[in-house]
Amino acid sequence: MARKKIVKDRKECILKAADHLFNHYGYEKTTMEDISRESGIPRATLYLEFSGGKEDILIAGLERYMRHMLSEMRAMAKVSRSGRLETLKQLMLYYILTAYDKSTGAQCDPNHMDRHTKRIRNEMSEYFKARTEFFSELLEQAVMAGEVPEEYDPHRLAEIVAHGLNCFLPPLNLRMSRETLERDALAFFSLLLSGLARHDRKASL
Questions:
Q1: Residue pLDDT, tens place only, 128-181
Q2: pTM above the 0.90 mark?
Q3: Cα dihedral 16, 12, 70, 80 in deg (nearest 10)
Q4: How far apart are CA 185 and CA 198, in angstroms?
Q5: Where residue 203 falls among pLDDT bands split at 50, 70, 90?
Q6: H-helix or E-strand spanning residue 181
Q7: Which structural domains are found in the chain, ordered by start?
Q8: What is the DSSP letter of 149?
Q9: Distance of CA 179 to the CA centre of its chain
Q10: What is the DSSP string of 94-105?
Q11: How far is the C-alpha of 133 from the C-alpha of 155, rounded, in Å?
Q12: What is the pLDDT of residue 108?
């Protein structure tokens, strides 16, 4: 048990050091030597924990960050006094803008992110599944509250919402300004969710 705690603490120390450096100097300019110096952990030990080097650290950091975001969104949903659809819209906008700020703060190159998008999605599939389940819970609550017609399948809707959300996440959103991103994302999700709230047509989903 003690050994596992030491390894976990060491990984956390590395991820915190890397996150600090990425935000201050950018991912491209940060080296493994920089991370070693910042964390106080020998360079050889960094590779014991993350054999793929800086790229593995980046992906582990993203997973850690996204899980924190999901936990934070769940907490925000619990205290929200708005309807479930409005809450979902605001949470998605918050998620998108926070991811944008995180990526631009780390000075991520969109072309570099493009090269790793497939790996990120594969290695974080469980996280994306959990995110979709969270959306499904909110949409099921919306159905129960009468905000959405009963004939809609909340899980199927959640999958569609998640696909829409992905269109506004890095690396795609790094090619636009924050103002444009916020405007377009808000318009898209307002249109999508207002469509779900209509009771005058049968669902085909």
A1: 899 999 999 999 999 999 999 998 999 999 999 999 998 888 777 677 889 999
A2: no
A3: -70
A4: 20
A5: very low
A6: helix 178-196
A7: 1-51 (1.10.10.60), 57-196 (1.10.357.10)
A8: -
A9: 19
A10: HHHHHHHHHHHH
A11: 7
A12: 65
- Residues 6+ away with beta carbon under 8 Å from 43: 32, 33, 36
What whole-number distance in Å separates Cα of residue 11 and Cα of residue 118? 24
| Counts for the chain of helices (H) and strands (E), in that order | 9, 0
**CB-based contact 181:92 (threshold 8 Å):** no
Rounded Cα–Cα distance for residues 162 and 61 (Å): 21
Over residues 80-104, the pLDDT tens digits come to 999 999 999 999 999 999 988 887 7
Residue found under tokens 């915190």: 16
**How far apart (Å, rounded) are the C-alpha atoms in residues 17 and 38?**
6
Distance CA 149, CA 144 (A): 9
Burial 82-100 (b: 16+ CB within 10 A, else e): ebbbbbbbbbbbebbbebb
Would the pLDDT of 200 be above 60? no
55, 116 in Cβ contact below 8 A? yes
Instruction: Tell me the one-letter amino acid at 173.
Output: N
